[in-house]
Amino acid sequence: MFRSSEMSARLECLLSTSFNILSNVVWTKPNEPGFDGWKQKMKKDALRQWYAHTERIIFADPAFGENLGRSYFANFLKNQRKIVGISAHDFAEATGFYGKVNHGGTISNWETGRNIPSEEQYQKVVDVFLSSEKIESMPDYENIIRTFNVDSTVEFTDV
To answer: Does domain 72-144 have CATH number 1.10.260.40?
Structure first.
């Protein structure tokens, strides 16, 4: 969603009731010296008030459930585990994902929205769920988790 800098904070607060705000990006409008940057049609001295040369872009995901991150994946995993009828402890045993931090382990962190599994970890989750024969299919990793593929060759900036 594009927005002016004047409405930035207000709109983000409003959206945060139903969405997880992922990022704010500043779009710099192209401009030539002496022009306002919007299609380069107006000289600055013709403006009555300051005209922004940037716009803010809000990236957001719909918020789901009562988990910490209001994460879609966290809700999905917990619901699938309940359909299979396996406790979080037994699920950790079946997948081999244990955690010593916070005594809840990896499964608990995923279900509370603290983090997400790697592709290899997700495949183990899929194998456990499908082997129960209570679930017929599971979505591909890229369809259930918004993947983020950047490396040191990609510039990472918010402008």
So the answer is: yes
SS (H, E, C) the chain: CEECHHHHHHHHHHHCCCEEEEEEEEEECCCCCCECCCCCCCEHHHCCCCCCCEEEEEEEEECCCCCCCCCHHHHHHHHHHHHHCCCHHHHHHHHCCCCCHHHCHHHHHHHCCCCCCCHHHHHHHHHHHHHCCCCCCCCCHHHHCCCCCCCCCCCCCCC
Identify the CA nearest to 26 among candidates 49, 52, 51, 44.
52
What pLDDT, in 10s, does the model give residues 31-42? Answer: 555 554 455 555
**Where in the chain are all domains bearing CATH 1.10.260.40?**
72-144
130 CB-contact burial (10 Å; exposed 0-12 / middle 13-18 / buried 19+):
middle
Side-chain half-sphere CA neighbours of 28 within 13 A: 6
Q: Would the pTM of this model clear 0.90, i.e. be above it?
A: no
